[in-house]
Amino acid sequence: MTMKKGVIMALLGVSLLQANPSYAESVPLNPVTTVYVDDRPLQLAAQPLLLGGTTLVPMRQLFEAQGARLSWDGASKTVTATKSNTVLTYRIGELSATLNGNPLSLNIPGQIIKGNTMVPLRFVSEALGSTVKWDALTRTIRIVSKDDFFTTVLSGVNLRSKPDSSGASPSLRLIPSGEKVQVIREVNALWLEVRTKDNLTGYISAKPKYSDYTSPSLAEQQGDELIAYGEKFIGTPYEFGAATGQTSTFDCSSFVGEVFRHTLSIDLPRASYDQAKEGREVGLNELHKGDLLFFSARGLKIGHVAIYAGNNKLLHTFSKERGVHFDTLDGKWQKRFVTARRLF
């Protein structure tokens, strides 16, 4: 990824964390436990702040931890950071900066707060060629200042010139199983933009069978994609033992199998009690859109499966009267609940 491209992506990307609109203009970023640079905790002179949805951290530690030499003009409040052939110049308080002489825009200006010069973490880091990631599980910010070839291809996948599998997007080459790539960005639920070690940039499928790349944002997008496809079948008739390979009728497990196969190329066993062995177990209090929920039915410990649709809703089928439909995960279903499994 070229520096120019990295900066453009930084400007267009979603802010690392979103502020609650009811908060004050700036609040301590208490949910963040640690900021890491190349797996080393960054020792900050002041707590990170949240301004308008953008994370700000003390300037000097952020620049120097990523190998940039810092020059500060106190009279004009201008910082110049140099790293290899990259020169970033920024005047605190303004909404513009220059990178190698080219003008750039910031969403939120840097601030001097209680004697600490605070600058936007994502903007500065990606301008210096780093990758910024938010780890929701550990509530940490991770900055990778070197080439991040951490994603492993699990099954041979075409590197395409566009995020499109049709003939309009020719394959640049086949990336074999075991090769590592750098993920530049998540294009959408189904595509990743990546760079290979031989410096080719293109697009690969984001479906779980092709790589071990995961992130909370990608999982959320893929959950939305699953539900969007599944709800196209609202009202489709229920038929116990419905044949696979067709979509005119479903039973609970054939419906789930069709949705996961079509959307994410995840092949599931035919029966619900076998589907319950896939993925990893999660609790009712940690459900994400797209998780599978299993219930007792017909005298079986596991005899029914549904897709969690978010907001305490289920998408499933079991009734000849209703066919495929949404339900509320209420007390009736919770009494019959056995397990939930996460597949992506």
From TrEMBL:
InterPro entries named in the record: Cu_amine_oxidase-like_N, Mao_N_sf, NLP_P60_dom, Papain-like_cys_pep_sf, Peptidase_C40, SH3-like_bac-type
Organism this protein belongs to: Paenibacillus brasilensis
Keyword Cell inner membrane appears in the UniProt entry: no
Protein's UniProt name: Cell wall-associated NlpC family hydrolase
Record family assignment: Belongs to the peptidase C40 family.
Gene Ontology molecular function: hydrolase activity
Keyword tags: Hydrolase, Protease, Signal, Thiol protease
Signal sequence, renumbered to the chain: 1-24
Domain NlpC/P60 per the UniProt entry, residue ranges: 220-344
Domain (SH3b) ranges: 146-213
Matches recorded under PANTHER family: MUREIN DD-ENDOPEPTIDASE MEPH-RELATED (PTHR47053:SF1)
